[in-house]
Records
---
Amino acid sequence: MRSALALVAMVLTGAAAAQAQQAPSILFIGNSFTFGSGSAVRYYRANTVTDLNDEGIGGVPALFKSFADQSGLDYDVYLETRGGSNFDFHVDNKLDVIANRPWDKVVAHGYSTLDADKPGDPTAFVAMGVRLAEVLHDRNPAVEIYLTATWSRADKTYPSDGPWHGEPIEAMALDVRAGYDLLAAEAPGVKSVNPVGEAWTRAMQTGVADPNPYDGIDPEKLDLWTYDHYHASTAGYYLEALVIFGNVTGVDPRALGAGECSGMELGLSGSQVGALQQVAYDQLTVKGPMTRAPAGATPPRRASRCAVR
């Protein structure tokens, strides 16, 4: 009898330990700026993440998962995306998957211009974002929400009919960031804003990326936009993922190294990967410290570090 009780106790203890060690869950909510439209990122490593819409998307969430794995961090990564959507779409149509579990962390963004009908106007954007945050917070009061402030669109800046025409390329990103700051101040559970748009601007200002794809791309510079000058290129989504990874985990993106495997698999050179990691780090350290790269850190070299898990 005592042996049986001891066995039961061991099983219960083991189950409790396994539960305590369960990987934190992270849900990405967004649109084409999350799923990687216009680039090889869209279906990249889709088998490493869970697409709640069953559309076979890897996207930025799969890059986050790859970075986490290479850094020795275990995350259970999910995504729920729909092209062209704002926060209201997810609340009105996807509560069955968004609210089906208490997420530990959520990364979310709305439409690229804040309001599709009134570009730059944050009024409806903030109201809809608060609704989404309330749903997530009600399901788990301890949830950490990270809002992703997206980039300036070249197609809304350089053409004469663009709402940001005549303004510098950084203007749209700053207006978008201001909208996210308003939302962060009102929505429950918001931990911080991922400064992706500002990182794009930094890449242009420091000569890593070209600021105007309409007049050609300067030699040795990256085009962060894809062919439509709206969505991101592989390099643009890679930078987005680096910023989100660094902000959510607190890990220095440079610790991944110039030999980081996803950059290699997606066709970026070591120098490009290193430059984008530096941009992400610099942007993330503007307003406070983060975990620094270990002294003498080197790029991952073992094939197992790059294996799809």
Note: The first strand starts at residue 25 and ends at 30.
---
Amino acid sequence: MPTIQTLKARQILDSRGTPTVEVDCLLSDGSFGRAAVPSGASTGSHEALELRDGDKKLYGGKSVLKAVANVEHILEALQGAEVADHRKIDGNMITLDGTTNKTKLGANAILGVSMAVCRARAASEKRSLWQSLADQFGVKLGKQVKLPVPMMNVMNGGKHADSGLSLQECMIVPAGFDRFSDALRAGAEIFMVLKKLLHDAGYSTAVGDEGGFAPHVKDSNEAFSFLARAIEEAGYGAHVKLGIDCAASEFYKDGIYAVDGKKLTSAALVKFYEELVSRYPIVSIEDSHSEDDWDGFVALRKAQPELQLVGDDLFVTNVSRIKTGIGKQAANAVLIKLNQIGTVSETVDAIQMTQKAGWNAVVSHRSGETEDAFIAHLAVGLQTGQIKTGSLSRTDRVCKYNELLRIEEELGARAQYVSPFES
């Protein structure tokens, strides 16, 4: 296998106009890979460190020039290293950093290199990135290769918009289709109908960070009422379900959850979700409770065992926290975000631990995104079966869907679309 010849980093802008890190990797055989690192707004306190400069004169303190410079230090350690074993490359960077949460070099610097090396390796192999990732991490792909079911955030609230809606994401889940492209079309058509319904009701159709509408609806019930109507009027009532990312850490304080104008205990919040599930075809609830409210997660799992219950801030793509969650049976799915942990290898470890436990892994974007479609390849290569990458507007979201369309075309008859939910 070729070796790493050069690594070059730069500061670019993400979908919010905030600086982030981009890394180029050139191998000894001339193969090239480039990767851009996303950034979250609703972040868990247990995530790896996103290193920023803190100089208020530059982008209000959010510049990433220190992380960019740290890629030079990483190059000193990795120059000449073979790319045959990606775990070894990532392990060398983790050792070089020497901290628990990558606070020395920054998870953004380390992840940029990790992703760029993966891309360069795939280029060297003259294979698609998803194929290279599957091979690198021991995923045996059969005759049929799964395309992920998209969880589309078509109505934004919480930290992703100024709509006043407590729940951060109200999602449509096109589950009952035979092809990814058909599911994507259904999502886009529902999004168009939703826009008309909101406009006709006198609501704004401006969009939030993840491309979903951000109307000032009065509560969660009204939000899901609009989604249910849009699905029906688009003609997809039997095929499309609903999902929620509550991001409950954002509306939790001193043991109380403030949602829809109510102040609820952890136990009362379980009842709140049960009422929503009884009214609407909700199949997935993410971050139902605050990131350290293990008892709340366990209580909802016991109350709603048939639902997909996803941990995001709860697990932060960290195998230690996922292991704890499996032991407690606190969920049955894990949200997977590359920049929460900071290397591709550790992200894969989180996915494979999740899958081994019989839980679902949901590969996810961040609210601050770029045109990099790495996660589309990760979802296919690791056969996760689900992806979250926003709504049906804004190129930073749609580019991931478009990449999945290309992968589906590349696979041809091998492409398989299997929903983890009943249609």
Note: The longest helix spans residues 180-200.
---
Amino acid sequence: MTSTFRTLTVPLDGQQFAGGLPSFLVRDDVLCWTRREAGLVGFGEITRFTATGPERFLEADIWWRHLVLETEIADSVELPGTGPVAFGSFAFSKTSAHESRLIVPEIVVGVRDGQAWLTQLTFDDGPLTPEGALTALDRWLGSSSTAETTTAAADSGGDGTPGKVPATAGGAVVRPLPLAAGATLHTGSLSEEDWKAAVAAGVAEIRTGALEKLVLARDIVATVPTGVNAAKVLRELAGRYRECWTYGVDGLVGATPEMLIQVEGRTAQARVLAGTLDRRDAHGEDGLPLDYATRVLAGSEKQRHEHEIAIQSLTTQLAPFSEAMNAHDEPFILELPNVWHLASDVKAELAEVEGHVPTCLALINALHPTAAVCGTPTQVAGALIRKLEHLDRGPYAGPVGWLDAAGNGEWGIALRGAVIEGPDTVRLYAGCGIVDGSQPEAELAETWAKFRPMLESLGIQN
């Protein structure tokens, strides 16, 4: 390929596709970041960057900035997400063998504030024209019927073998659920009893004063003999969880309610969640369900304490990059189809650091992992996670999203998701914030509420 990276962005008639951007989720190898009818969808791949270890964010940042430095950009739309774009997914842990990645697609369709556009990206020498970009898009959409369902994140199995499913603990079906025809559900790294013991051990450590909060995750493995259709899963998630950000990157799929960092110009925003209530717990309660959620979540000292730790974690790490910052004085109740969350939005005006505004990947390097997905203090919680979980989280609870050449980007935390490990196998992840008042049985039930979006999208649970 040539050394010149070139992009062409042209307007699209958004009226031509009913249902907004989710209507483009037709291939199992699609790259996507959507919310409601807006976002970005990518097809193909012209280059990628991979890294592991503690410097993965900064290494990716350097690679991207070098790539776009001399890019020839033709952009008649000029919105966040136009021009050069990469989709990304990063491992949760600096010790993970899972490869973090930035992927540059060949074609991107974007929708924002009612405007739609098409971007073609290439290293080839041939002319870039609107007609050529539309032809390339039609080619990708036209071949959607032949897309394979084998997209799998590299070394997602946790043992370094692409697509290989590690042995499960005991191999037993973990819970009586309405299963899709022939589907099976197995425990992952820990059985339910062992995971509850890990929660109890975490609470004991908290009571020694070693840490304030710990986030423990667990995994389950679903086998669907009829095959895993990633595009269908993404469409289901986008339709059911419209207030979440639906993501798909290299076999990592999900719909996260938590925004780690969103950067537009000099403005950065985040949505922090901590405190969860299963909506099924409201059955039989008097009054409005939202009133029940407000009473149980906002009125709970345990839930408020957990939420305050998460807010403090984010704002403390973001402050050195900000000229001004504001957050909700009181958290609000975020209503999702499966759960309610205590949520707070944080907004900051970014300051110049050494002569330039920090990039979104530089911010992620400072912010990740937050107390919402790790605990506090971070180093103590991280070490305890490795000791108690017996699990390589891979991309689960890591940053997932996109960035453009202008420094804009949206990066959520990869929650409510799964990794497609093979044509009929999916590994699902869920975690809970553990504090002094946590009860192992209640935390286990919370993981099942958080598994529900993926289970439903796979047709496994009603």
Note: Residues 145-174 have pLDDT under 50 and may be disordered.
---
Amino acid sequence: MSNADTLRQLHQDHLSNYNNQEQQAIELMGLLNKLYNNQDVQVTLFGETLDSTSVGQILALHQKVALRDNNAKPIDIADTLAMVKVIAESKDIQATRIDVGQLIANDTDVQAALQSINSAGAVNGATDVVLYGFGRIGRILTRLLLSQASSAKGLQLKAIVVRPAAAGDLAKRISLLERDSIHGRFLGGISIDDDNNGMIINGRFVQVIYANDPSTIDYTAYGIDDALVIDNTGIWKDEAGLGKHLQSTGVKKVLLTAPAGGDIKNVVYGVNNDTVGDDTIVSAASCTTNAITPTLNVLNDEYGIENGHVETIHSFTNDQNLVDNYHKSDRRGRSAVMNMVITSTGAAKAVGKALPELSGKLTGNAIRVPTPNVSLAILNLNLKTAPESADALNEFLRKIANSSTWQSQIAYTDSTEAVSTDFVGTTHVGIIDAQATILTGNQAIVYVWYDNEVGYSTQVLRLATQMAGISYAQIPA
């Protein structure tokens, strides 16, 4: 056989193999949709949601996780399909999240794992959600909520509230949702319902309400009741201001997507969300606080943190000026697209609210830089117990990132080529850059990337799910 014939055969073999994988992915998508719609069962692969709408994304995710850990067992699409078939045969399983990656990698008996969960009577209802404000975070939350397969359970986006505007406002807002300079086009259908002043997004109607004062809105007039309001405006940050939402008709709870003051709890999901209880007003803290607190939590548990400094290299935000102009805050009046701007950050101090054992131990500053998204936190820490080496520290962080406890929030990269744009759209709240880790005695410097829009919004929705009383059994626990 000639070299050309060998290459043709190689090409044909690869194509045949990929076609076979595509067919398996199509079959998998059908099973995932049935599990989600009929039993409220969500299947993940090492914490990553298996997208039930895209063959390419399912196969790309399997390729990605195969490379995530050189010591891990690769996960083939055939392995996933076989396990999901077993899960689909178990009709009694309800309201459960199942990580097939962890089950396959650890050679877990899936039948035994399913039998260990008593979820037959578990049913999650539907919770109406209102987004108050439709800026960067509001639109990202909309994308995340309505990109999921439709379901009668869970968080149901029913309305968006914005300030009164001129004619044509609705079309402009839909255009901003559909087209995004950072995250690209929305992969779904969006249209205007002029008659009812709303949007139809992936077949679901979302009311647009114009108001200046939250307390004046009667949500029940729009068929909305016992709603969770997610306030993305940042206008009100205390109980008196945010309490206006509770004075309206049809609202039960309020979640703020910014740090709050007073007695309102600042919550980082995965760290201190167990403190929420029946609170009717809760803050999801800031993007930076969410990005660094999980990593600080695991480092403190393993080595102990004496003290440290957090420096964030943060993408510019909408509160800065494009060109030099007056600004009430120091330095932020200077052009955001032309300068690195040193500014303050409350993230280091806010860590102490979510992780009281670190209260008063961290200082912090921020440098705003001319990039539109993805930021980098540098954790300069004095540890009580020194790791044996930088490699040992990285190995600990790698295992944490691959653990069932933290895999959805903390990610890990040891690529020598990784740059900020590689992390646009990541749902992990923080990605540890192993190549940048420095260790000198007890002093550790750890670099954490984060998409300050999508990563943070994912944390917001995790907290919103808890506040709505929606819960899932976990396999593995």
Note: The mean pLDDT is 92.
